[in-house]
Amino acid sequence: MKYIIPSLAFASLCTLTGCSQSEPAKTETTTTETTSSITASTSNTTPTSGKIYTVAVDSNFPPFSYLDENGKPIGYDVDLINAIANKANMNVQILTKKWSEFPQALNEDQVDLWIAGISISEERKAIIDYSEPYLTYKTGVLTKNNAKGMAINQANLAEQRLIALESTIDFDYAKTLVKNPENLHGVSTSFLAMKAILTDNADAFINNNRVLQYNVKQYPEYNLRTFNIDLANAGGKDGNLGIAVKKGNMDLIKKLNQGLADIKQDGTYNKINQQWFGTNEQ
């Protein structure tokens, strides 16, 4: 199935019209980034009584989570947390939150858990707790498939104009990589990062390789390519994604871990991976 991705539709439009980076174009299929938790959906498979756990997702991070044409959160993370909740006998309500609100919203009890393609890191473990990893990923690079893009590789990546999402592990890695700090630009959403690539304002976008590959496969007309960074030779390793909760909420961690184990055992997990990524790879 080919899903509507607002970021790419907007990037295509801006290639022709030169839209502002600060205000998404308003079209039938484009959804502006939410400024608060104004969009919510509740799983259809959760209990009819009991505590409702609020779940924060990103509004513009396909394929993990984004808004459909009706403003409803959809994506891999949405399907996964609903499946986990079903097995763990949990009521969940899904809200969209800005990444800049993480992890403050957790620690101030605005939401109970956060699932938004969040990398597990030792630094974050000091202020939040995680479920068991639910997905692995590699650090990837996306470029245009033109003469310059074909020449970009790991060896010369530090010399390119790089773009990455602010306050992410990818941005931290890019800071250590780039030779000239002026060649690294941080943005708040992949929406803006893709626009920068498609309008030749950046040479390479560093991000979760699953996100990058999804965009390339869904929209081959944009003539893009990706490659993975060999972090083993750069002193790093592949990453893991986890569900974040408030520090010390071990009861919720136990529920999430059990639900995750159950959907892996009954095959639901593999079905979700196959649907969104075309593979059962964990």
Number of strands: 16
Q: Give the helix level as a range of percent.
A: 25-40%
Overall shape: it is: globular
Global structural class: alpha/beta
Classify the beta-strand content into a percent band. Answer: 15-25%
Distance between the termini: 21 Å
In round numbers, the mean pLDDT is 82
Within the largest sheet, what's the order of strands? 1-6-2-7-16-8
Number of helices: 10
Could you give the order of the helices and strands?
HEEEEEHEHEHEEEHEHEHEHEEEHH
Output the radius of gyration. 19 Å
Low-pLDDT windows of residues: 1-46
Largest sheet: 6 strands, mixed
Key words describing this protein structure:
single chain, 282 residues, alpha/beta, six-stranded mixed sheet, five-stranded mixed sheet, globular
Care to describe what's here?
With 282 residues, the protein is α/β, with parallel strands linked by helices. It has 10 helices and 16 strands. The protein has helices at residues 6-17, 76-88, 104-107, 122-125, 147-151, 169-177, 190-198, 209-218, 250-266, 268-277, and strands at 40-42, 52-57, 60-61, 65-67, 73-74, 91-96, 113-114, 128-130, 135-137, 139-144, 162-165, 184-187, 204-208, 224-228, 239-241, 244-246. It has a 6-stranded mixed beta sheet with strand order 1-6-2-7-16-8, covered by helices on one side. Strand 3 and strand 4 form a beta hairpin. The protein starts with 5 loop residues before the first helix and ends in a 5-residue tail after the last helix.
Summarize the structure.
The chain is of the alpha/beta class.
